[in-house]
Task: structure prediction
Amino acid sequence: MKKQVLHRWFSAAGMALYAATGQVCAMEAMNDAELAGVQGQAGVTVEMAHKASMDRFSYFTNDNGIHLKDIRVGSASDPEGQARRDYELDLLNDGSLEIGLDIQDERVSVGGVSLDDSGARSMGAFWMDRDMDGFFRITPGGAGGSADGYTFNFGYALSNGRFGYRTNGHQLFLDDVSMNISTPEGAGHTLDVIDGAIQYVAPTVGDITIGAVRYAEQSTNIRGDQSALASMGSFEADFDFITDFEIRGGGGRQGAEGIQVSADTTLNTASFLYSTNGYGLLYQGISGASSVQDLRIEVGEDFTEEGRQGLAFTLNGDSSRAEGNLSIDDIRLGVDAGTRDGGRSVGSVNFSWLYENQTINGATFANQVYLMAGGHPDAGDEGMRFASEWSLADAGLTWTTNGNSVLFDGIQSWGRGDVTVNVTGNEALGGTQFYKGLRVGFDGISGGYRMDGIRVGSEGSAEGAEVQAGAELLSALGVFRSFEFGNMDGQYTLTPGGPNGDGITINSDLYIEDGRIGSLTEASGQGVWADDLSYEGHIRDMTLEVVQNGLRVVQGEAWSTMDVGNLRVGGAEDGASFGRIVWQRYGQDSEMVITGPEGQEGLKLALTSIFSEAVGDKRNRFLWETGRTTDAEGNPQNGTGMQLVLDNIHTSDGLGAGNNDFGVQTELSVDVREADSADGLQPSFHVNTHTRFRELNVGRVNLVHNDGSGNSSTATALQGVSIQNMDMESNLNATPIP
Result:
């Protein structure tokens, strides 16, 4: 029986090699006697130089298709050349078929990916270069010695790798990639069919190194040496995991055709290193587990009223869910990238999550993504669009330093909207300004997040502690107890290259409408609320790099406006209003360095905020408005009340200095430690801030009166206010109230 199976396998393998190479040589299947004669011997060697192409490959479900176009295989170094492949096929004494392979100078490329309704739009082009050698062994017999299944063992070493993505003549690619993947010693992948489902168990170990992430403005795929191009830095990872898949046919969410997947994964161990210019951000001692139940894959119409077509990945059934946990034993900043020594420890973290359907504010949210052709419409016909809906029903983040833990508990998040992906250049197209790099855009996203509060305890005991306030201590970093928004648009574009060589440069624009931020909130809904919020923010040439002992971010030029229609105390919608608050920010070369305290675990941030003098509409300005008139529904109308305005706020290095380099400097230390309380020493969430500046100036303080009909009058109360040489320190501990 095994010989017949292997006989058919040889026949199929011969046909596949014939089709892939386009060779005209004859190939004949071996009979049983011939197969018996080669067991335990050198077997068959196949050497080939190959170049092949395929116009289109399509996958259909329920009469809807996704199409891969212009598929090519050939030489990585020569557009007209052939790649080299050598195979050795051996029958081993235990009845296994082993295939050794050696691939040299091979490129595989896909010219575009589209759907039936894409028209001229495409998801973009993908390409891969590689040299690879290794083996693949198939043995009759599946899990638990099942006679009907198969066991697979393999080991692959990939070198000289490149993986690229191109849209509209611009491309981002992973350069100098090497990878080693294998089955663990004494184990193997097993394939069985049980109760109508494919059961595939995959224990895997390996490592991967990405030498650089680069950008190029050219319409043809990269060839030759590109080391002169800027890099985002390098990445290294190693891993040991096992995944148990159950794969069924029988339908997706929208018809009888589709794939149903459930999977359980255990990550035994892993590590990750990101480095620039010789220094690294290191995650070590990574472990965890995850489970995905009833994931459906098909081509179908998305959840919007337009019913746009996409490749669907959905977890929106009653039994659908994804849950798991991930632990990182040690996070170190600024290690020596070569030896992984040194640096400073931030501590350890554990994250748990549950994604499943939930109802928020009367609306039901599920977890589903539809992959479509075409990114931002002004960027060109090539790009990717993800119509996304997410529902994080429950999550917890535990951070441990020096034997004490804080748990950010009861985290929920939800939302829906579109995310676009393009590789773009520095150009204005169709009224939109694009920047060089990988552009991730947000289009009509609504959603939010909230958390119950924090729990503080000694290591391993935080989950049993009382829920308390304290998350508010991180509001200076943009972390709030809750945040909701009705609409978000914008983009982040990541470009290779930092201020000192390797690194990442970021340009971004962000627009938020109908927002609401909650702080010091309780289960009853009472708290402090920034209601009727809108935000507009822009960042140019912000850079990120890993430095000795830390992570350094320099903002470049940044300007923003946050407009809070009502600052309320009490209920989010009916609490007493302090009026309207508007805070405009403008600065250049503001800096943040993130590191750990010397000699202990924790988080230390050195912030330098430069408040620049006004340039046109870009300025630092604070406005407080009260006494506004209301419309027929009782809603206050902005611009109709009395305003107190602090205009052209800016820093300087002191009288007559002529420089603005010192700014407002804040050292922020965050950790979990024991602190004095009414019950003696207790673990607490601790935040220490030390703020100082040399000179803070206010150009003028105005009082503005609006009469409600569009007329206003302004009186300057103060002109040219300066505050000098301030030095202030605060030490805050959040502990449970006994």
Notes: The chain is about 5% helix and 65% strand.
